Amino acid sequence: MQYPTTRYSLGSTKSSLPSISSIPSSSSVYIPYYDYYPHETIPLEQFQTLAMERLKILKCTEQALAKLNTTLTTASTTKTDEIEKLLRKELKEKLTYLKFR
């Protein structure tokens, strides 16, 4: 089964990209992955490393919310600060490529 796709090179300039309304879609909603498309190329190994780091961040976020028995949408301002502190502590130890200040 074939699906229609549209591919753009990473080196495309913003002016050369089609407008959202001109992109054909089987549904009426188009959600872009980026506000601005990246202008550089990274090696596959680095891309995979960043993907693994992203999964670690998502897992740590899920675990922190479970520890505090809350969700991001229902957390009060004080809990949001607690969540941020807990995440920074956890992620500082677990991430190797991305760094927190």
Please tell me about this protein's structure.
The protein has 101 residues and is an all-alpha fold. It has a domain at 44-94. The protein contains 2 helices and no strands. It has helices at residues 44-67, 77-94. It is extended and about 40 Å long.
Number of strands: 0
What structural class do the secondary elements suggest? Answer: mainly alpha
Q: What's the helix count?
A: 2
Helix content: 40-55%
Q: What would the principal axes of the Cα set say about the shape?
A: extended
Distance between the termini: 47 Å
Q: Calculate Rg over CA atoms.
A: 19 Å
Largest beta sheet, briefly? none
Order of helices and strands: HH
Which whole number gives the mean pLDDT? 73
Strand content: under 5%
Residue windows where pLDDT falls under 50 for at least 5 positions: none
Region (Disordered): 1-22
Biased composition (Low complexity): 8-22
List keywords for this structure.
mainly alpha
Short description:
It contains two helices and no strands. The chain is mostly helical.
Q: What is the element layout, followed by pairings?
A:
Layout lengths: L43 H24 L9 H18 L7
Helix pairs in contact: 1-2
